[in-house]
Fold this protein.
Amino acid sequence: MYVRDTIVAQATAPGRGAVAIVRISGPDATKILTSIWRPVSEKALRPRALSLGDVVDPATGTQIDCALATIMRAPRSLTGEDVAEIQCHGGSYVARRIIALAMTRGARMAEPGEFSRRAFLNGRIDLAEAEAVADLVDARSEAALRQALAQLSGALSERVGRLRDEVIGIRAHLEAEIDFSDEDIALPSRAEIAAEIDCLRGEVAMLADTFTRGRIVREGIHAAIVGKPNAGKSSILNLMLGAERAIVTATPGTTRDVIEDSVAIGGISITLADTAGIRESADEIERLGIERSARAASAADLLLVIFDGSRPFEEDDARIIKLTAGRAGLALLNKRDLPQRLTISELRERGLEMPVLAVSALIPEDAARIRAELERAADALVASPAADKVAISRERHRDALMLAAASLDAAHNSALAAMPPEMIAVDIMAAGDALGQITGAVTSEDVLDTVFREFCIGK
Ligand SMILES: Nc1nc2c(ncn2[C@@H]2O[C@H](COP(=O)(O)OP(=O)(O)OP(=O)(O)O)[C@@H](O)[C@H]2O)c(=O)[nH]1
Ligand SMILES: [Mg+2]
């Protein structure tokens, strides 16, 4: 087992609350707990049971709190080490005071993600599962929750493990060729090995391709509301949020900064970013705002494009249509409560390809119609081409898969070019290592630092 010093941190979020949990992990966890916490009754602490007691400063004998405590013995604990937890009264002062006490007894303040890192190093969870814990904590929608749970239960690790097994199988064939090339044994032909490598490369690439879907499910969809000034972008944002989030005025050029907020639609979180109206402008502040609009639009997963139905088609609308070329999204022909000077068919003639809905930001019922269409657009983004349940959701996974696919590609070329088996084996091993990085079967301190740095303290 991997043993280090003893660490302490608050496991619950800082701030006021009914209960705060102080977590201690490491060889001295029990010793530290019993030096600062005394049971009310004389019964000894039983592992995995809660006991009531007093937290007392051993130096002065002063009582700090009345709190529940529990211990979990290594290796059957979160971290695989001895773990002690104190459930004290919520509020940051009490918890901080207890942490300080534990530190005077030899514990060290944990770094972000250090408990999870220890769980990984002690073999309690693999790296993809540790990341899934973080995703579960951050989940903001039902879809994100489902995806994190699947990853936590090892669905991704299993899939990657199978791919790695196939890599090992190919390596075995190559090694047989190296070892027995002089002997009269039936070995797979080069063409067979090349085909095997190519098939595996395809599977790896397919898993890499689930990234867009997985990331969207994990983070939610980023949608940018774009359109010319005064089209009603901010009004539509407010309508969708059911709150006066953005300033609305009759003056074109009202919105300058990007204003964001999220709504849950069809089990997926969609962040709507209201932006400055796009037009030629001489005003410096407005121009900077328009630059931000363009950036928000290009970074968005989908566009919510607003046209003003009460005004005839203008040059600014043409600019907006150009911006939507090839992009996923939904267009709204707004202000349908006013006399109409622009129609859906004219927008089509002018080259708009997205679905269009005639709405009014002033008609509350239209929010439901927009939601339904947005849900369809969101579904199209997360739809899985091959009824594939497993999806990767982190760039780290995608980069590792792309590296594996590139190595397999190189191996495939070498196999076709009748290179010696040792040459092919080098790339095959690189592919195996790249896959191993996902679960942490192959890892380095750098990778662990990057993964766990993202976690909060106490996790
Ligand atoms: N009648 C009517 N007026 C609307 C509708 N939507 C927006 N408006 C009005 O149009 C004006 C502009 O609305 P905003 O929501 O500020 O438009 P915007 O696109 O955010 O404008 P900028 O931020 O300047 O780019 C305001 O006076 C709104 O009240 C609508 O559906 N019907
Ligand atoms: Mg606005």
